[in-house]
Amino acid sequence: MPLIYGGFGLVLLALWIFCLFDVIVTAEEDCRNLPKGLWILIVLLLPEVGSILWLVAGRPQTVTRPGGLPYKGNTGRFPEYDRPGRFVPSDPDDEEFLRRCRERAEEQRRAYREQQRQAEKNQDQ
């Protein structure tokens, strides 16, 4: 019987350590329902209950993102066009400059993709 309780204790210890590290490495904006610092305190001070609460109510939900890009809020387009709070030009000269920057960036992306296709084609031969 003590072996069963010892094994259960090890499982609880492993769960507690997992949840503690999970809270620590989770980004602040991904924590649900409470701030990250409060989650750390809850998991530290209430090991069993806090760990279960973290898994149920605090851990970020896994979201599949279109395009496979690893940042939050991915829309599948280029992020510099969709980023909230990005610079919006008020001067027509600024608008023209930003348009040319976007065009140059698009051209560089096309050239890079073409270079990758050529490299793949050369490897296949």
UniProtKB/TrEMBL annotation:
It is found in: Cell membrane. Residues 14-59 form the Cardiolipin synthase N-terminal domain. Its main location: membrane. This is Cardiolipin synthase N-terminal domain-containing protein. InterPro entries: CLS_N (IPR027379). Keywords: Cell membrane, Coiled coil, Membrane, Transmembrane, Transmembrane helix. The chain crosses the membrane at residues 37-57. It comes from the Bacteria. Residues 95-125 form a coiled coil. It is a multi-pass membrane protein. Residues 66-93 are annotated as: Disordered. It holds the Pfam family PLDc_N. The keyword Acyltransferase does not apply.
